[in-house]
Amino acid sequence: MTNIEMGEYAVGAYLKLILECDVVDYKVKRPTKGLESQFEIDLIGLQFSTSTAILCEVKTHILGLLCGSNNKDTIERIEKQFHNMQDYAKNYLHNFENQKFMLWSPYVPEGVQTKSYSEMNGLDLIINDTYTEKIRQLENLAKRNKYSVTKITDNPFFRTLQILGHLRK
Which domains does the chain have, with CATH numbers? Predict the structure, then answer.
């Protein structure tokens, strides 16, 4: 089993606690054998009341998003992962009327990459300032006394935010 990365826990906390997904699953692989099963989806969140499936690719590269040796390799890899998410949703989540696809990364330098990702129709970019805004929402939720006292989650990222939000001087 693949280890869950802390950035994936951050996105999982957002899906569960802010977007109120009923189910959040990590490192999802196709239930098939062969090459198709090698691709994994970092996170899938399901909202039953709205019939929404949210599929996320998470790249927590704090010095800039780079997979491989250059921008071209990185863009191709993200595009391949985006198509994999779309194909997975089509084949396994077709009962969910609404399907969203997201790329989460705290830092993607403005330029070739951001332009290329913005041209991938249907891929929501949660990068740079938007990423920061989403994490700040989680921080604010974790600091609320009522929430922090009554809701201890099994998400280590959010639990850490709860502890940090209640440190004493």
Answer: 6-128 (3.40.1350.10)
Instruction: List the beta bridge partners of residue 40.
Output: 29
Model confidence pLDDT, tens digit, residues 122-158 = 999 999 999 999 999 999 998 876 555 556 678 889 9
Rounded-to-10 torsion of CA 58, 60, 63, 67:
-50
Is the Cβ–Cβ distance between 24 and 36 less than 8 Å? no
pLDDT tens digit sequence for 51-82:
999 999 999 887 777 776 788 888 888 899 99
Q: How many CB atoms lie within 10 A of CB 27?
A: 15
Alpha carbon 135 to chain centroid, angstroms: 12
Task: Say what the pTM is.
Answer: 0.88
Among candidates 76, 55, 54, which has minimal Cα distance to 65? 76
Q: Residue holding tokens 């929402």?
A: 137
The continuous run of DSSP H or E covering 96 comes out as none
For residue 140, CA distances in Å to 47, 61, 73, 146, 162 come to 23, 23, 37, 12, 9
